[in-house]
Amino acid sequence: MAFEETPTVVDQLNYSPNYFQTFQEAVAMGHLEPARNNLFEIVMSVPIVLQPAAVAYPAQAWLDSDANGRNIRKNISLFATSVTVPSRNVATTEVHVHGMNRSYASGQSPTDLDITFLVTKDNQHRAFFEQWMHNCASDADNTVGFYDQYVTELQIVKWESGSNTWLNKIMGEGSDRTEYKFRMNQATAVYKCYGVFPKNIGTITLNNEARSLLELNIQFQMERYRFDTVNIDGLKTTAQPKNVTASTVPTGGEFSKYGV
Predict the structure, then answer these.
(1) Coil, helix or strand for 216?
(2) C-alpha separations of 9 from 35, 36, 231 in Å
(3) Cα 27 versus chain centre, distance
(4) What is the pLDDT of residue 175?
(5) What's the confidence (pLDDT) of residue 253?
(6) How far is CA 67 from the centre of its chain?
(7) In this structure, are residues 191 and 159 in contact, taking their beta carbons and an 8 Å threshold?
(8) What is the CATH number of domain 35-162+185-232?
(9) Whole-number pLDDT of residue 259
(10) 3-class SS of residue 37
(11) What is the pLDDT of residues 54-81, one digit of tens each?
(12) How far is residue 223's CA from residue 165's CA, in Å, rounded to a whole number?
């Protein structure tokens, strides 16, 4: 009985492992183009302990003027300069009966999540994480908060350019009426982190040397994360183009913009 290989993407190309044009043709298919590291979004909900309507002591909550964290959630994504996505480790246990040792999988343990922010002049990121951490474990009265109230969920959304979705925009009127088409970016992957809370605020160095931008590093503890790809077909050059207008573009907070 002859062995039948499972068809793959390279079956659509004139494949040769030592032929550079094969690589060029694969990249030109769109979804196999190398990803960039500078297009991402952070979506985070404010934990219960910082929501004014949900805490027993309103003084411990985040700013009442922020509408339950609407501005800080937006600015966390806007001013994040870098994100270190956690790695996934399989914990092993070793057993020895006779001969060579054998290791077997015994669990998983992700590494910490690191996010670096630009420091704004009003220091709102520092103030937010300081207050969050004090609600986790206070150094004033040596008390700790309830776990379910100070943890939250956080999503890291990876975006890519070159999608098959176009934004149609009409400008001007009458004889000056012109229609423009803009190629939109597209979310292609989501890392969703559970049980997230900040455990370390990094140091900040001030000096009298040449000025530069201040950055703040926050290290987060987390239970686990899940990874999934979304709407990969929208990156293929063979996919049917989609046209949208300003009124039909998904708004922030709608998961439909991720293509699912």
Answers:
(1) strand
(2) 18, 21, 17
(3) 24
(4) 72
(5) 41
(6) 23
(7) no
(8) 2.30.110
(9) 38
(10) coil
(11) 555 555 667 776 776 788 888 999 999 9
(12) 35
| Tokens encoding 142 | 């040596």
Domain range annotation of the chain: 35-162+185-232
DSSP 137: B
Q: Count of residues for the chain?
A: 260
What the block records as the tokens of 104 is: 């077997």
The rounded distance, in Å, linking the Cα atoms of 201 and 217 is 6
Q: Which parts of the chain register pLDDT below 50?
A: 1-7, 250-260
- Closest to 47 in 3D by CA, of 84, 87, 76: 76
Burial classification of residue 32, based on how many CB atoms lie within 10 Å of its CB (0-12 exposed, 13-18 middle, 19 or more buried): middle
Pair of tokens at residue 117 = 């922010």
Task: Name the nearest CA neighbour of 129 among 214, 221, 205, 218.
Answer: 218
What's the pTM value of the predicted model, to 2 decimals? 0.75
To 5 degrees, how large is the angle CA 16–CA 20–CA 21? 85
CA-nearest of 144, 120, 135, 123 to 52 is 135
